[in-house]
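Project channel, design review

CF: Before we commit to the Myriangium duriaei CBS 260.36 constructs, I'd like one complete example in the thread so the newer folks can see what an input/output pair looks like. Taking Adenine deaminase.
RD: sounds good, go ahead.
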Amino acid sequence: MPASDFKPADEAFLRSLPKCEHHLHIEGALSPEVLFRLATRNSIPLPSPSSDPAYTSPTTLAQRYKSFTSLDDFLAYYYRGMAVLLHPADYEDLTYAYLARAHSEGVRHAEVFFDPQAHLERGVDFDTVLSGMRAGCAKAEAEFGTSTLIIPCFLRHLPADDAWTVLQSEAFRAAAERREFVGIGLDSSEAGFPIAPFEKVWRATKGMGLRLTAHAGEEGGAENIAEALRVGCERIDHGVRIVEDAELVERVAREKIMLSVCPLSNVALRVKKSVAEVPIREFLDRGVRFSINSDDPEYLGGYILDSYVAVQEAFGLSRDEWKTICRYAIEGSWCGQDRKDVLLGMLKEI
Ligand code: HPA
Ligand SMILES: [Zn+2]
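CF: and here is what came back for Adenine deaminase:
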């Protein structure tokens, strides 16, 4: 269906679908307005407008976010932006605001990433971030019934020893034992930063009974996806370059390994020229399981419903195909079977 045939009624249908979001960095839900407000409240100096005019106002910053040239160009703003987050309440408010917005767009289950090392290096400890996020999740769960899980991600541009230190820390181990997060991920710059050095971290994490995922096949090639699976990842974040390797495509379909795809992010970071180039059609035709996610909604082009609408405009999927995507997302979630059954029940009613 060409874009001009997209009916407004389809947006109501897309909104009504019971969605699971698996690829959302909470730091990427920090809007320019909140960034400026928290910078003042927490006395964190922003770059001066003479060094970077983007920091003149929230409007100019939002405008700058529309012209990222690469993952690293974005990451520079993303790491600078999150420096305004200091207190548990900052993380709680950010998490709650994201979940409220997500709920209004039909998200019924969310698995939320954060980057502990990016906070630790500024003196913000693991528990500050985690306790704030958990409070935001609890509030949203009580108010909207959204189920949530939290996934700390290690930064692949830092040495694996640094991730190992976090993994061995008392705060990480105690929270893992209390099951305050469900697994770990790996994010940040992909090209030139292979996953292999993190193998020891990944094995130890698995030994703690935690789940494993990693960003791979976003900026880097399909070989990074194969490597991520070799070290024990159960799902892949992005993974769109998997189509470069037909055997790997067959394998993930056969083994029901889910890809958490982020179409608007791919376009914003120039991984793809347009949403139409994201291999949604190939994935559906070859039985590759995937979910559709926003990644960093305040930086990279929008929230989850924007992503669903963009995919519908590009591919004109049938209602049954949308239900298949939502079923893949439910089945690929890391919540328990009881919750999955509830979500599948919601999907049946659509
Ligand atoms: O899309 C991403 N890729 C890698 N690292 C990230 N950190 C936040 N978002 C991303
Ligand atoms: Zn991401």
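RD: helpful, thanks. The chain has a mean pLDDT of 97.
CF: DSSP finds 17 helices and eight strands in the chain.
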